[in-house]
Give the backbone structure.
Amino acid sequence: MIVILKEHPEQTQLDHLMGWLKEQQIEVHPTVGAHQTILGLIGDTSALDIDLISALDIVDDVKRVQEPYKNANRKFHPEDTVIEVGGTKIGGGNLTLIAGPCSVESEEQIVGIAKEVKASGATILRGGAFKPRTSPYAFQGMQIEGIRLLLKAKEATGLPICTEIMDASQLPLFEDIDILQVGARNMQNFSLLKALGRTRKPVLLKRGMACTYQDLLMSAEYILAGGNPNVILCERGIRTFETYTRNTLDLACIPSLKKLSHLPIIIDPSHATGKSSLVPSMAQAAVAAGADGLIIEVHNDPAHAKCDGPQSITPDAFDSLAKRLHRIKDALAD
Ligand code: PEP
Ligand code: MN
């Protein structure tokens, strides 16, 4: 971090700032020019409040030269993080396919889809029990019963389960769930992130629709700093001026987040496009761009799905897509 002082800073205030920085274990390297003095701050500046320093009378400007996230930063953790879930590995060169309906609707539906996607190569089953809907009048999910049915599907197929947690108070209900999904709307629900940091459960953290890479990594930092190293990043499209697609899929996030962080990155082409016809090509592009996996909505009867039918692909479409995705992954390894 670099602190640029105003001309002729008042000495007692400067001494006070230097003393305070020393207390924070920060080394200060001043460069005194004819008109301006610059302080180079060396050490872990991630906990320093940039706004607090900027507001001081003697300070002209403050610039961060290092990212404010430490645990999520590749600089401090050069190796890829690999997360083990129910016998499968996420990250480190594996292609993880998470598939299933937007929401659990019945035992027959979730167990049937689970069997089909498993046969096509999915390694994790998705399905919402608690649904964050824009309208309070829309289907809110089967809730506790939905969790029970997901566990039935796990029993029937052996597939680990990924489902969304909306509030920290729901944690006891998720004890047997393998991956806790934090939805886009909850990416900055900091009390939820802190609670997840106190567990060791893998967390699929979805990027908020108006959030930057840094925002996403700072949210991951909440979970990591709490002591839970099992964070998976997920891009699910962001809001732009385009209205043809539900969101805009930002595939540049894959090489960017891989450069900035060691955490695995999963792409959700279903919520990113909102259209089942666009899901296969975006899924293929994501694998070609180096994604660690995909989370795809699959429904046996998309036209009658209770949630997100227009973006859900059929089990047959998933089957041929999964084969193509593995071919692309293999071609990249050559
Ligand atoms: C979902 O996965 O069904 C979902 C609601 O996702 P998002 O939070 O990305 O909208
Ligand atoms: Mn959905």
